[in-house]
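Our preliminary data section would be incomplete without showing what the modeling component actually yields. Below, a chain of 107 amino acids is followed by its predicted structure, encoded as tokens that our downstream tools consume directly.
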Amino acid sequence: TALGTLEATGEALEVLEDPALGSAVCKIDEIGWPIESCFGSGSGDPSWMYYRWDAETESWESGIVAIDTLEVGEGDLLAFVYTTYDPVTFEPIRQPPDIAFEEICPP
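Predicted structure:
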């Protein structure tokens, strides 16, 4: 899963586990919020968002499922971005740069 992949990096993580909604990343190393306030204290606070690279469309797709339910495979490219959200559309303000898998992991 995406969570398993992130855990495999060895970074210090704080993850909120909700039996009904799944898991959400609260903190990576020193960036983010403790589990008790995983999404901050208000709607303007940043939180972690994950993206998966879609090779067919050559664009990032934002994570719409809990991080512990997203299956990943060999060659999948994930990005984690600490971002705030547009107050009207609730879309993330920051997104990862458009970059091909080969630029990160040359053949």
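Residues 2-8 form the longest helix (7 residues). Helices lie at 2-8, 101-104. Preliminary results of this kind motivate Aim 1 of the renewal.
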